[in-house]
Amino acid sequence: MKVYLAVAALLLVGCGQGDRGGVSLGDQRSSIVSSSSTSSSSSVESANFIVSSIGKCLNMDSLDYLDVSDEAKINSWDCAPKASNQRWFFSGEGEIRSTNGLCLGLGEAYLSGIEVIAKECSDADHQQWLYDEFTGAIKNIANEDYCLDIFANNLHLNGRVINIWPCTHGLNQRWTTADLKTIKIRSFTDERLFVNIQPSDSGRDLKVSSILEGWASALWVIEPSENSYRVRSLWKPDQFLHIQNGDLESGAIESGWSSARWLVVPQGEVGENAFLLRNVWKPDIYIGLNVDNYLVADEFSNLVDGSYIWISSED
After folding, report:
1. Is 20 inside any structural domain?
2. Contact (CB, 8 A) for 147 and 167
3. Which of 136, 159, 178 is the endpoint of a domain?
4. Is the backbone of residue 214 left (phi > 0), alpha (psi -120 to 50) or beta?
5. Which SMART domains does the record associate with it (predicted)?
6. Exposed, middle or buried, 215 (CB in 10 Å: 0-12/13-18/19+)?
7. Do 156 and 221 share a domain, yes or no?
8. What tens digit of pLDDT does each residue of 261-291 get?
9. Residue-wise DSSP of 180-237
């Protein structure tokens, strides 16, 4: 079913039904991450990010963003919650409009591989888009067999060209929208402690500890990735929380790693901003504290009671 992109984003949280020790594992809505959902007959009031299934954002070249007199280049880039050149408005008429006023469209004849650009808005079909809510594809109205596509291999690298290509339902053609948030992740059991990667004498940079005001090392971006989320450091954008090597780490990842994908499971009975982080690769694994008060990823039975519950606070 096709709907305008204005109704594209649905919150992608939750996991299997069940209950364990008073902790809810059901599918609920979360305030940790936001979605945009609206009728196709109205306009979305706030600008949102367009995020690929591998976690890269639709990005306008920063110099082109400032110079609205010419065509602007579009590529994929690490999501930056405060970046105006990654925010887009979605109109009920199918336009995808940047916060600088330019609209997403095509600059040349309609052929496979033609680069997507942003330029002055018009009524042209090549500036009109449809969203397929079942596949995550963004299709151009000029030819609905063609989809918004991240070109080439190594999709995890920045600066990949955005073009149109015959729809294949591949990872490089799946998109969602989100209002990305930068948050601090605070311990539920001790409100003085936050997850951070500030270098320490102990050698354990990834930890929970007290923090100082202004520490970027304690700020995290929750970004969509294939029906789940990745937790990226704002301070070191190439670092994500993952368990690829068995233990919880903050480091570089590859685009296909399920070990770096997490379900954000709301804990409404504890508080509006309370949640669990459950791993997609190993669904019995949660982030919490062990008996030595080290930050780890493990099964509930090996974690200190309540330490697997986290509270978010926006930066």
Report:
1. no
2. yes
3. 178
4. left
5. RICIN
6. middle
7. no
8. 999 999 999 988 999 999 999 999 999 999 9
9. -EEEEEEESS-TT-EEE----TTS--SEEE---TT-GGG-EEEEE-SSSEEEEESSST
Query: Rounded to two decimals, what is the model's pTM?
Result: 0.68
Residue 44 included in any domain: yes
| Lookup: tokens for 77 | 């880039």
Question: What span, in angstroms and rounded, lies between the C-alpha atoms of 298 and 243?
Answer: 10
Of 189, 186, 171, nearest in space to 53 by CA: 171
52-111 tens-digit pLDDT: 987 889 999 988 888 877 789 999 998 888 899 999 998 878 999 999 999 999 976 667
User: What are the residues facing 242 on neighbouring strands?
Assistant: 249
Distance of alpha carbon 40 from alpha carbon 27, whole angstroms? 26
Q: Are residues 307 and 187 in the same domain?
A: yes
Quick count: other Cβ atoms within 10 Å of Cβ 260? Answer: 27
In a domain, 21, yes or no: no
Scan for tokens 């685009």, then name that residue.
255
Instruction: Please tell me the distance from the alpha carbon of residue 210 to that of residue 191, in angstroms, as a whole number.
Output: 9
CB environment 176-202: b (16+ within 10 A), e (fewer): bbbebbbbbbbbbbeeebbbbbbeeee
CA distances from 18 to 23, 29, 184 (A): 9, 16, 28
Where does a domain end: 142, 163, 178?
178
